[in-house]
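Course assignment 3, question 2. Fill in each field.
Student: A.L.
Task: Predict the tertiary structure for the chain below.
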Amino acid sequence: MRINIIYYTSTGNTLWLAERAKTRFEEAGHTVRLSDVVTDGLSAATDCDMLGILYPVWGSTLPDPFRERIPTMPDGAGKRLFLIGNCGLFSGDTGIHWAKVLERRGYDVFYIDHVIMPINVSMPGFNFFHVPQGDEIPPILAAAEDKLAAICDGVLAGEEQVSDGRDLVSIIGGGTQRLGYPTVALWKGMYSVDQERCIHCNLCVRMCPTGRISMTEEGEITFDGECWVCLRCYNLCPRNAVLIGKRSVNDTRFVRYKGPEEGFVPPLYR
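Answer field:
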């Protein structure tokens, strides 16, 4: 069977899961293609027998590149599709909400679940949860890998399963978060760079999925245009020079998440 997995990753958690899902399916004898929605859009939706969408949960909804593209994706003609989200704590009813949209596009969404991965958000105004570091991360990943293996086995067995978003708390919480999600736009105008920390490595420019970050001839980093608030530049800058609000210069209080494994490098787009 040909299985295509379309994913979006910000700080690496979803890519980590996608690579392991690919391995699990290949070990079972299937052909698997991973496709980054930023570079490939939803083109991988057509050339396969089964489609998977792997995503980080953002405020009980999908990341911007999926939300922008799914409503106009090709007709599924009954193609089987599974959804695997990941979150630090609460996924709401994200999977169920978007399954309804995908079903209207003609897909048979038969499996929905999510995996707990390390939290990657700590900034002024959103500093409620502990961002794991060092030895705290491997146990989370081990549990995630076990959960993912069970999901992959269920998908291959053709099980009909909806494991998240059906209880009242998830439905109310998910809907409330989606209503409030547009407030994330307030953070878009708060980006800056601590020029004393910046080493002009150009990593933030290369990994920005929307191309909104640029470097002047004088070496100054500027932010303009569209932003998805994916937090790649904020978290993965090697010197924590990217700030969201001036107070985030305190990287002891506002801890950056450097990815699921040491040496993680995000997809680079330029």
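Instructor remarks: The beta strands are 2-7, 31-36, 50-56, 80-87, 108-116, 161-162, 191-193, 213-215, 221-223, 242-244. The CA atoms of residues 93 and 165 lie 4 Å apart.
Grade: pending
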